[in-house]
């Protein structure tokens, strides 16, 4: 991984950590029942997990499509090369 990607990953991880820390602090300070705090906390946790899963799914689909396209290009190139060799 190059430095740009490493910095980008660090920055995103840092922002997520800060956001979750501030959210936890606001839940702790909020003047509401403990059950409501737990419900909100679970909602945020599950939402965060869903976002991570969605991003991973889209990334995997993109990688799969790129691989399929590479295979198709290689197959087409082979067919064209074989056709040109026969002509």
Q: If helices are DSSP runs of H or I spanning 4 or more residues, what is the number of helices? A: 2
Helix content: over 70%
**Gap between N and C termini, in Å?**
45 Å
Shape: elongated
- Beta content comes to under 5%
Question: How many strand segments?
Answer: 0
Structural class: mainly alpha
| Major sheet summary line | none
Describe the structure.
This protein is mainly alpha-helical and 87 residues long. It has 2 domains: 1-31; 33-87. 92% of the residues lie in helices and 0% in strands. The chain has 2 helices and no strands. It has helices spanning 3-29, 34-86. The model has no long low-confidence stretch (mean pLDDT 87).
List keywords for this structure.
mainly alpha; 87 residues; 2 helices; single chain
List the helices and strands and how they pair.
Blueprint: H1 3-29, H2 34-86
